[in-house]
Specification:
single chain, 356 residues, alpha/beta, TIM Barrel, Alpha-Beta Plaits, 12 helices, 29% helix, globular, binds iron/sulfur cluster
Amino acid sequence: MNDFVKGKSGYTGKGIVFNIQRWAIQDGPGMRTTIFLKGCPLNCGWCANPESQRSHPEIMTRNILCIGCAKCKEVCPLEAISIVESPSEETVYSSMRQTSCQAQSAVLSDESGNGLADSGREVKIKKEIARNINWSLCNDCLKCAEVCPAKAIIISGEEKTVDEVMKVVLKDMSFYRRTKGGLTISGGEPLMQWQFTLDLLKSARKRGIHTALDTTGFGSWAILEKLLEYTNLLLYDVKHTDSSKHKAATGAGNELILENLRKAVKKCTVWIRRVVIPGFNDSDAETEALAQLVTSLDPLPAKLSLLPYHKFAESKYESIGMTYTYSHVEPLLAEKIKELKKVMESLCGIKVDIGK
Ligand code: SF4
Ligand code: SF4
C-alpha cells in the first residue's frame, strides 16, 4: 500500500489547482463551480484531463503561438529545449503551417510572391523555426514558461489557498440558489489532496453551498469517510468490474474502489459514473456485471450516468509530453449509447442518464 492510499501527505494549507470551471452543468445538479485538483494515483489512457495526472505544476506547450525567440532555450538549465531552423527555400505544402511553430521572420509565399497560401498548393517557406522540447530531460522547473513572451509555454497547476478558491466559488451564489447547484471538487483524484479538499468542503458547507465530490474511489476509506461528512453528493467512477482488466487499463485493481463504494452508499447520496469505452467496458458481459454490481449495493445509488468516451483531449497529451494511446479507439455511436442506457435502466431499476 503506497503513501497515498494510506493517506499521508505534506499539507501546507494550499492545494494545487489546474482549473476552476464556473457554470458547470455536468458535475452534479444545477449550475456549479468545479474545482479541478492535480494528482491522480490511476493512469487511465483515455483520461480527458491528462494534465491532472501529475501532482506538481507542469509546463504545457501551445506550439502555434511560438514566435521562435529562443528565450526558453536560454533559461532551460537541463538543455531540454532546442530551436530548429529548417533550410531556407524548402518546398513544402501550406498545410505544414498547422504543425510547427513559425518564426516572426518566416514568410510563406507562392511563386508570384502573393503571400500566405492556404489551399494546399506547394509554396516556398523561406525560414521556419520550431521549438522542440526533449521531454525525457525536462523536470518541470517551469523556467521556460516564466520567460515565454508569447505564452507558447504555460504552467498547468497553481498553488491556491482555500480562500482564493472560495472567492471564485462565491461569485455564483445566486446561480446556485436558483438552480440548486453548488460546488464540485474533481481532478485528478481529490483524495490525493484530501486535506485541502476537506477544507474546501467545510468552507462551502459553512456557507450553505451544496457540495459534490467526484472521485475514483481509490484511496483510504478513513479519509473518504471524513470527507463524506461534508459532502452532499458523491460522483463515483466505476471503470470496470473485473479487477485484472481494471488493473491493465488504469494501473490498479478495483478491490479497494468497490469496497469503498459499498461503504459510501450507506453514508451519502451516490451517482455512479461510467465512461463507456469501446472495446474495454461496452461488452454485454460487462454491462450485465455493472448492473449486478449496482443492484447489489445497499442502499441503491441514486443514479447511473453513462459518459460516452471521446477524443477531445488528444492534443493535450502531446502538449505535456505524454503519448495518447487511444488514438485507434473511435467514440461509440450515439445510438449505441442510447441502447445501453435502455438496457441499464431495465437491469438496474434506477435512473440512468447520458452525460458528457
Ligand atoms: S520546464 Fe523543462 S523545458 Fe522548461 S526550462 Fe525547465 S527543464 Fe527546461
Ligand atoms: S516557446 Fe516562447 S520563449 Fe520559446 S521560442 Fe517560442 S515564443 Fe520564444
